[in-house]
Amino acid sequence: MSPSYLLDTSALAAHFLDEPGGAFVTDCVRKGQAALCALTVVEFQLLLKAHGAGAAERSRVWSLCREAIRAIHPVDEAVADLAVQLRSQASERLPLADACIAACASRHGLVLLHGDSHYAALPASVEAIDIRTV
Q: DSSP code of 126?
């Protein structure tokens, strides 16, 4: 089965930290429907570190995560170009990393799963689900 969803860092965190919407993300991961953008790998590692996880714990958690994720998509030139377009079309400020993650989802035909209110600024052309509302 190919992935249907691209997880933003907030969705991945909800899955691992049992936050609101985490059960929905967990279900997607268990069904093999989840992919990541390479930037989420970086953000997730930094999030774990900020939560006090040492190097060994971050490695253990990432290993579990990597086993469950179907694909990790790079931020290539096509994704970067799309991120620029999304930022210019956004109704409010959209952080660069989040624009790249949303562009990655859109480029690969995946629904973006997130738990961040600033994604509401995305143009309607990007299919996104706020996991806090499911």
A: S
How many domains in the chain? 1
Range of the domain at 121: 5-133
Distance CA 55, CA 111 (A): 31
Q: Please give the Cα distance from 22 to 4 (Å, whole number).
A: 17
67's CB contacts (< 8 A; 6+ apart) are none
pLDDT in tens, 13-40: 999 888 899 999 999 999 999 999 999 9
Question: Does pTM top 0.90 for this prediction?
Answer: yes
Element (H, E) at 6: strand 5-7
Instruction: Choose among 72, 111, 102, 71: nearest CA to 84.
Output: 102
pLDDT in tens, 38-62: 999 999 999 999 999 999 999 999 9
The CATH number given to whatever domain includes residue 110 is 3.40.50.1010
